Structures are given as C-alpha cells and as structure tokens.
Amino acid sequence: MNTVPMESGLILAGILFILGFIGVLVRRNMVFILLSLEVMLNASGLAFIAAGSRWVQPDGQVMFIFILAMAAAEVSVGLALILQIFRDFKTLDADAADNMRG
Amino acid sequence: MLDLLWIVPALPFLGFLILALFGARMPGKAAAAVGVASAGLSALITILIGISFISSPPQGRVYIQTLWEWFNVAGMNPSIALRLDPVSLTFIFVITFVGFLIHLYSVEYMEGEEGYSRFFAYMNLFVGSMLMLVLGDNLILLYLGWEGVGLCSYLLIGFWYKDPENGYAARKAFIVTRVGDTAMAIGLFILFTELGTLNIGKILEQAPLNWAVGSSLPVLTAALLLGGAVGKSAQLPLQTWLPDAMAGPTPVSALIHAATMVTAGVYLIARMHVIFTLAPVILTIVGVVGALTLLIAGFSALTQSDIKRVLAYSTISQIGYMFLALGVGAWSAGIFHFMIHAFFKALLFLGSGVIILALHHEQNMFKMGGVKNMLPVTFWTFIIGSASLVALPLITGGFYSKDLILFYAFSGERANHWLYAAGLLGAFITALYTTRMVVITFFGEAKTHLHRKPTWIMEVPLIVLAVLSTFGGFIELPDTLGHLTLFSGFIQTILPANSAEGAGISTELILQIVAAVTVILGIFIAYLFYYKNPEKVASFRWSSFGNTLHNYWKKGWGFDWLYDKLIVTPVVWIAEVNKSDFIDLIYTFIAWINRVFNRAFSFTQSGRVRWYAMGIALGAIITLTIAVFL
Amino acid sequence: MILLWLVIILMAGGIAAWIAAKWNVMAARWISLIATLVDFVLAIIIWVEHPSGITLGANAPWLVDFRWNWIPSFGISFHMAIDGLSLLLVLLTMFIGVLSVLTSWTEIEYRAGFFHFNLLWILAGITGVFLSLDLFMFYFFWEVMLIPMYFLIGIWGHENRIYASFKFFIFTQASSLFMLVAIVALYFIHGKNTGVYTFDYLQLLGTALPPAAEMWLMFGFLIAFVVKLPIVPLHNWLPDAHTEAPTAGSVVLAALLLKTGAYGILRFVIPLFPNAVRDFQVPGMILGAIGIIYGAILAFAQTDFKRLVAYTSVNHMGFVMLGAFALNELALQGVVMQMLCHGISTGALFILVGALYERIHTRDLNKMGGFWDQIPRMGGVGLVFALASLGLPGLGNFIAEFLILAGSYMANNWVTAVATLGLVASTIYSLRIMARVFYGRKPKIEKHIPDFNVREMIIMGSLIAAIVWLGVFPHPVLDTSRPAINNIINTTSQSSSMSNLKKPLLPVKTGTTVQLAGKSEKGGAR
What we know:
The structure holds 3 protein chains of 3 kinds. By secondary structure, chain A is an all-alpha fold. Helix content of chain A is 75%, strand content 0%. The radius of gyration of chain A is 17 Å and the shape is elongated. By secondary structure, chain B is mostly helical. In chain B, the strands form 2 sheets. Chain B has a two-stranded antiparallel ribbon. In chain B, strands 3-4 form a two-stranded antiparallel ribbon. Chain C is mainly α. Chain C has a two-stranded antiparallel ribbon. In chain C, a hairpin with a 4-residue loop joins β1 and β2 (76-82).
C-alpha cells in the first residue's frame, strides 16, 4: 500500500496553519476568527497524524483526539463569549472590543 | 554673703518668667514694678556681695558656686556654676546697677507703648543672660549667656515689630553676631579637644602647661575666640550691625548696645587672657583691630545726623579703645575703661532718649537745636557725659581711664607707637564729633517745640550716672596725680599686671599733657567750625570732594555695601534660584523616563486581539529562528 | 511581655477606633487618645522601673527582653528588647502620639475612624521598629509604618497629596528593598559561616564578613536609613510628603518616622558593620555636613510655611548623620539628644503651621505678617521653637548640636568647621519664620484670627516644658542612653582588632582624662 510521505502531510498542515493564521489576523468578524482558529487547530492535528503514521505510533492519534476535545470546548466557550460581546457592543468586529487598550 | 550669688541672676530670670507668663494680663504698673524690682533687688544684692567680697576676699580671690551639673558626656561635664572674681564682680556691678537705672528710666520712657510688659520681660531676660555670661564658670555656660544676650538684643531691636525696617536691623544684628559666635564655637571645640575641659579655671591652668607660646594651636584658638569677640563687640570686620541696632527703643540702646552686651567681647578676651598671651600675634591683632575700629568709627560718627547713630559709632570707637588696651596687655585699663564707658555712654543714650521723647520721637540732630534751655537737667548731665567721653582732663572719669590706655600703649610691655598714635588721633576725633553733637543739639535756635517734660523717674538715673561717670574715675589715679590704684589693684589679683618699666613720672606727665592738649585742641577746633562758622563746614561738606567723603563715612566706610555684594546677594541668589531644589530634577527625570517607556509600551497594548496574535506569532518565529539557527 | 503590649494596645486601639467611628466619631478620638496615653504611661513605667545604668546583664544594655520562637525553621523569632536608646525613642513616640491625636481633634472630620486607625498603626509600626531585635521582624514593622502613612498622606493631605504620597511610598519602598536584600544576604553569610541560620540581631552581631561584602551590605542598610533620615541627595520625598500631609501626619513624619532612620544607623549599621562604617566615616560626615548647609539654604528660600519647616528637618538630620559617623560617645549622645529635641521642636512647628492653616487657610508666607498683636500666644510659641531650631542655649537642641559638633570635631576638623556654619544658616531661616509670620506689616486681608485655645495651649505647653527641660537638665535622658551608646561604641572598637585598619582608634573619652589616641590623623587644621 502506497503511503503518503510524511513531508506532504506536514506541508499540507503547514499551509492550512498559515491560512488559518492569516484568517485570524485579517478577518475582523469574530465568528470568522473563531473559524480560522479551528482551521489552525486542525492543521496542527494533521501534523500529529502525519507524524504518528510515520513512526507507527498511536500517540499522534491520541493527541488528535485530545485536540478535538479541546477544540470543542474552546468553540463552546468562544461562541458564548462572542454572543456576550455581540450583546454589549452590537457588533461582531473584534477591533471594537479594545477596552483593554493601555 | 557670697552664697547669695545665685540670686543675682535668678531674680531677673524670675521677673522674666512672671512677665512672660502673666504679663499680658497684668496692668502696666504691675509689669513695670516686677521688671524694675527684679533688677533693683539684683543690684542691691550685688552691692552687698561686692562689699563682702572686698572686705573678706575668698581664697584665691575666686568664689565658685555650683548649682547643678548641666550634663555629663564623655568628660564634658559643665555645671551650672557661678564664678565670682574681681573681673566678674566689676561686670555684674555695672550690669545690675546700670541695668536697674535703665529699667527705672524705661518705666516712663516706654509708657503707653504696646507691649509694655513684653518690654520689661525682654529686659529682665537680658539682664539675666548677661549675668550668666559674666558669671558662668565654664565656657558653655558663658556661651549660653552669650547667645541669650544676642537673642534679647534681637528681640529688643525689633521691639517695634510692625516696621519691617526694625525687623531687618534686628535680624542683621543677630546674624552678624552669630557669624562671630560660630567662630567662637569652633574655638571651644578646639579647647575641649586639646585640653579636655571647658571650665574656665581649668583652661587657664592647663593651657600654659600644654601649649608653647606662639604655637599654632593657641594662635588658632585665640583667633577664633577673637572672631566671637569682634562679632559681639561690633569691631572690625563685624561692626556693621551696631549702627542699625539703634532702631530699638533708646533704653535698649543704652543698656545693651552701649553699657553691657557690646562689651562682652572685652570680657571674653580678658577672661581668656592666658590663651591670648600664648598667642602674641593674635594679641597684637586685637590691638590693631581696636585701633582701626576706633578710627573708622570715629570718622563715621563725625558725619551722622541721627543723634543715636553718633552715639552708636562712638560706642564702637570706645570699645575699640578697650580692644586696644587688651592688645597692649593693659588688662585692667581695658576693664576700667569698660566701667567708666558704661556709665557715661548709658548717660549719653538716656539723655538723648529724653530729648527724643521730648521732641516727639525726633532723632535728627539738625531738627533739634536749642534744647539747652528747654531741658536743663538733661543738658547739664549730657555735658558731663560728653566731657567724660572726650576725656576732658582732670575732672572727668573718662580722662583717667583713657589716659591709662594711652599710657600703656606708649610705654607698657607691649607698647606700640603706632597704636598709641591711633589712640591719640582717636581722642582728637572724639573731641570733634562730641562737640559737634553737643553744639548742634543743644545750642543755636530751637527748631521744634517741647512735646513733654521728663519727670524725676527719667532724671534721677541721669544724675546718678553723671555722678558715677565723673567720680568713678577717681578710684584709679595716675602717679602724677596722687597714685591711687584701687581698681587696678583689685583687678590685677587675677589678671596679669602690666608694668611700664622705664617709663618714669616725666614720661607719664608728658603723655598726659599731650593727650590733654589734643582733646582741648579738638574741642576748640570743633567749637570754631561748628559753633562760630557753621557755614564753612557746610561749604566744605557740600563740595564734591566733601560730599563724597561725607557719604562714604556716613555709610560706615562701605562695609555694608561690600558685604551685601560679596555675601548676601550671592547667597540669596543661590537660594532663590535653587528654591525648588535642583536635585529634585534628577528624580523628575527618572520619573519622566519611566513615563516615556510607559507610553511606548502602552502603545503596544492596543486592546485588539489580532494585534496580540500577531505579536505571539512574531515572537514564536523569532524564538524558533534563534533556536534553530543558533 | 510589656513590650508586646506597647504594640498590641496601639494596634487594637486602631481597630477599635475604626469600628467605633461607624457609630460615633468622638468615640474614635477618645479611644485613640486613651490608647496612646496608656502606652505613654507604660513607657514611663518602664523608665521609672529601670533607672539609668541598671541593665539585664553586665555587658548588655538591655532593660527588658522578650522572646518567642515564631518560625524556628527559618530562624525567625519574635524578639523584642529595650535599651536606653529605644526606651527614649519609644517615650518620644508615645509623647508625640498623644499630641498628634490631640492635634487632629478638630482638624479631621472626613472618615475620622480610618484616620485614627492609620495613625495608631503608624505609631505601632514605629514602636515595633524601635523594639525589634530580629531583623525579619524589624523589616516587618518597617513596612507596617509605611503603608498607613501612605494612606494618611493620600487621603487626608492637601491639594497635591496624591503626588506626594506616591513619591513618599516609592522612595521609602525602593530603598527598603535594598535593606531586605542586605538582610537576606547577611542571613545566608552568617548561616554559611556558623551553620546557624538566624535573623536574630544579637547572634548576627560580629558576623565575620569579607571587607567588600561588609561594605556592600552596609550600603544596603544605609540606603534605607538615609532615605528615611533623609540625607541629601535622597531627601526629595520629604518636603512634598511633609507639606502635603495633614498636621498629625507631618508631626509623626518629622518627629518620629525620620528617627527610625537615625535609630537604624545607630542600632544596625554601626554595630553590624563597624569596619565598613569606619572606612565610610569621612564620606558619611561630609554627607551630613552637606545636608546641614543645603537644607538650610533651601529652607531659607521657601515661601510655603510648611515646606520651610520641612526643609529644616533636612538641616537638622544632617547633624544626626554627622554625629553618627563621628563614632564617639560625645557625638552619639548628641545624636540621641538631637533625635529627641528635633522631634519636639519640629513637631511643635508643624502643629503651629497646622493651627495657623486651620485659621487662615493658607500656608503662603507672602500672605502672612504682623500677626503678633492678634495671636500673641501663637507668636510666643513660634518664637520659642524658632529659637530651638536655631539652637539657642537653654533649649534642648543646643545641647544636641553642641555635643554633636564637639564630638565630630574630634573625628574630623574640617568637615565640622563647615558644618558649624550651619549654625549661621539655621539662624537665618529661623528668624525668617518670625519675620514673615509674626513681625512686619499686616497683609491687606484683615480678619479676626483666634489665638490658641486651651487644648492647643496644653499641647504647646507640654512641648515647651519638654524642650526647656531637655535644655537645662538633660541628665536623666543622657544617663538613660549612656549604656546603650557605650555598647554601640564598644562593638566598633572591639572588632577593630580583627580588621586590617590603617587608622588608629578614635579617642573615646572616659572620665575627665583626655586620651590623645588618634591625634596624629587630625593634623589638618594646624
């Protein structure tokens, strides 16, 4: 069975990570920032999977499940925060919530 | 009898305490009664003590009464102890007796003034402090009195506190004398460090044992003590405060700035005579300072128009004579002149006070004139005082005391003909300015009318002082006139005698004749110029040269100007410039730097999540780069 | 145990006053007054029970010793002891404490309960500082007095109070961190040397230190103390804090808080690091002389009455520094006198300023003048304390300054000669107070100013009595402090044998004989 080389998997993960990161930086809508964050999380998960299959170790998949669980928790908390922010600021623009400006 | 000594200073202090605590609520008469009674009783006890001291002198002619130990630290253990010997007895007699007369005089002079009881409180405090000064048996106690009289002088010069000019004069007096005091304090530190004691008796004993004549330590010590003395006694170069001190009420000028406090310097030098004998250089300087001061002050007195300022400069000049006497080693002559001077100068000040009060607080002589007929008692006593001041031969006390000084200056152990010449010239100038003052004030036509006549309260002190300043001189007669040495014999039991070997009766006679001729010549010339031809003096005075000279002398030879430019202005300038403390700038700068960084860092805290994400990413990349490639 | 009570009564009184003020403000005042009075009486009892010279041990100066192991594993014990030096300062603390409560009687209306809580806790902290013999506890109390003072200035101060309170806090806190580092370092060095890790002062005494380390540790302690003292150029918190604080705050600051710095130098710096102190003697004395002159010049220039008085403290504390580094009995006894007399005289001047401010609502000297006829009692009191501040003989300050200068003259001629000029300088600013406030012409605004009332005359009367007593009969005070001072001097002279000193011992005089040791180094002035 032909295996996908680890490098390809890692490059794909890297591209996904960078795309997600660019999304975090350029999008102002908080929902999209959250989406981009999910992309980044999954990119790192992909990297774990690729590495796990390269060394034939279960640890990669364990980590991926861990990341999935964490992402679920993060999304629920994040969405709750976004809801609250939307209620207070009447917008989803992340830059509007700069009350912590020094 | 002698064990009553402590009462002498205690009484004035008690009077002060009563007046300070309850004076405000007392009626004026009661306050005056407390003030006069405390000084009077003190004088009475002094006379009793004096009689007992002279009739049965204690062993060594020194009586010490220890009251309690002041403090005791590491060998410095001054006691509150009184030391009575012929010198301090002379001083306390003058202080309490003249003090009492002036207190009595003040009852009328100060009548109706605001702060009547305050005046007597300060005066009593002064008498008490002055007594501590001369009775103190150690130098710290002497210093206590020394500062105490300085304080009273300050308070009394500024007695009429509402006029800022008076306050200025008062502060000037305190601060200028304090400069001298500081020098004196350092002198005390040297004495204590080197001799291990500040007890006067022990110092006089120890100093010759530990120090060689002319070695650097006694010279330094004597110079520093001299600093204190010139400050208090208004001698060069710290004489500038005394003329301004005339801002105070006239009795104050009489008591503090003529009779007693200003002679404290003479007392200090006489007291510490051993130190000064160990430092002959400084002793010579004492004489030179005296000679210069008496000339400079004499010329200044010649140009004043304020009668009190004439007398003030005359006081400086006469104290110059005392310094001259000390400088030539004529210790007893110096003390003798102090006593006679206290009588006649107090008399002159009190007399001028009568005139000032009678003419409604007029002090300008040129606005007086013709007072002779208005106030006969004052006139005659004033004439007697003036005669004593100019040392009119044979019939005045001043003649005998000043003659003694001139005699020793010419032919004593430390004779110096320059100093003698200065003294003689000084006598001539004294005759000039005194005659001028008398002529302008008392003769000629009246320019103002009489405001009030003095009663007996003011006239009795004048008469008593006139008697004393005449007959006081007869206790010490020169060889040519019967040779009586009651006073010097008394003083010389504790101060070294000055033998004028090689000077026979003939020298003495010649000196006396020279002095007498000088004085009479001075009076005659002054009579010619100021009485007969006042327009000649006026024409010279208003010529350009005369005017310059006049103004220069009148302003006391420009010392005030010099000190102002040299010391006062720069110090005030520094203080003003540095008012907000330049060191604070350092801390303000540190605070400013922090604020700059704060602004820079708070700029990065934009509050935008995306910025922070960017920051994290950049940081991660940089860290990874460093970790991977380095 | 009585020592513990001194602190506990103040702390408990503070809490009680805070709580009581919720119901009744007067109750808070009375509680504070009673607490301070009780402590004052306790301090007097200690004094009376332990007349001069009677101490616990033959060679130890301690009068009362209290010890309780607190955290034995770190060598921290609750160790309090009192000797003549701390006894006098505790007496001063309680005396000034009573007066500062009385001073605030009508001045403080806003949150009076919390005010009195802070005031009493400051006093408790100061008392703790004077009594602690464990460096850990000492540091603890050092901080306890700092924070309530911060509140006192920040809440009840004048217009610029926030700035002043921050400045005060930062200066003192930053400097005390140096001390903390030095304490910990000393703890470890001693532990390493002997195997005994302890913060106990008596055990840390005589710790053998390498010269460089000793110097650095001394600086660590010294910085904390000279900031408190304060010494130029670390004095800048003082004028602001004193000026902006409420009257009681200024009084406590000037009369007591500054003394903790002086006490620290005497109690810790000199005995713990005798060799370093001796090496630093001349610079230390020079710093003192600079403080004397510089403080006086600054005081002279001020137009804010309170600020003027504040700068006089810089001037007077210069004498303390000068005397402390002179390291002989004469000067150190002078330092003790100076601490007491400065506490009384400057405290009185601040109370006077406060009373005047309460009446005319200004501290600007340009708006004052000619007040004597309206308020003669205030004028008389002002005169007495202006004279005390210029060192008039007969008042306590004279003895203090004379002893310090005489003692420091033996240690160093030239520095002392310069410092003596301070006598002239202090005359100038002191007379300026009288000239600008009580003498001269009246300002245009004419209004009735009430004179001191009975409460204020009681305060001032007791202060005048104290300063005159110290001036004419200081024996009891000097006798009380003598064993403690001799002990300090002994620690410096004993350790000198262990070190490689270039200089000979300073002359320490006993009795009336003069030891001429150390004369060779004083040739400068001849």
